[in-house]
Amino acid sequence: METSFDSDLIGEIFKRIWRRRAAERERNEVTEAPDTEVGVGTPKKSRPTLANAKALKLSSELLRLFVTEAVQRAAMIADAEGASTIEATHLERILPQLLLDF
Predict the structure, then answer these.
(1) What whole-number distance in Å separates Cα of residue 63 and Cα of residue 3?
(2) 10-40 per-position pLDDT tens digit
(3) How far is CA 27 from CA 22, 33, 35, 80, in A?
(4) Contact (CB, 8 A) for 102 and 44
(5) pTM beyond 0.90, yes or no
(6) 56/50 Cα distance (integer angstroms)
(7) For the chain, what percent of residues have pLDDT higher than 70?
(8) Alpha-helix residue ranges (DSSP H) falling in the chain
(9) Is residue 35 classed as helix, strand or coil in its secondary structure?
(10) Cβ contacts of residue 70 below 8 Å, gap of 6+?
(11) Considering only CA atoms, which of 49, 95, 101, 99 is closest in space to residue 74?
């Protein structure tokens, strides 16, 4: 069996990103409409974004496949250039096509 990323770790990364984006949205809304009153009739709900276990497992597997493919493609470029290690430039060269393929 192939190893995969820990679904709990991926879930925590997603939660952190969701919290950061929610905070940014709140800051943007406050700066865009400072005169707006937030009262009883305001339809805003501050509930957290959630992902179920199956979605996290699937996201972990997709991330694993993406990283594996990136490393394999970068290794092919490094090998063609005669390098023994993968450098950032190798990843930069394969990234545009990799993103299009995924």
Answers:
(1) 12
(2) 999 999 998 898 888 888 877 765 555 555 5
(3) 9, 10, 14, 49
(4) no
(5) no
(6) 10
(7) 79
(8) 7-32, 53-80, 88-101
(9) coil
(10) 91, 94, 95, 98
(11) 95
Instruction: Report how far residue 76's alpha carbon sits from residue 53's, in angstroms, rounded to the nearest whole number.
Output: 35
Helix (H, G, I), strand (E, B) or coil at 94: helix
Rounded to an integer, what distance in angstroms lies between the CA atom of residue 51 and that of residue 48? 10
Determine the residue type at 18.
Answer: W
Q: List, in order, residues 6 or more apart from 39 with CB less than 8 Å away.
A: none
Q: Which two tokens stand for residue 66?
A: 């993406």
Least Cα distance to 87 among 71, 102, 67, 101 occurs for: 71
How far is residue 5's CA from residue 63's CA, in Å, rounded to a whole number?
8
- Assess contact for 21 and 83: CB atoms under 8 A: no
Residue 4, phi then psi, degrees to nearest 5:
-135, 170
Return the structure tokens found at 98: 């990799």
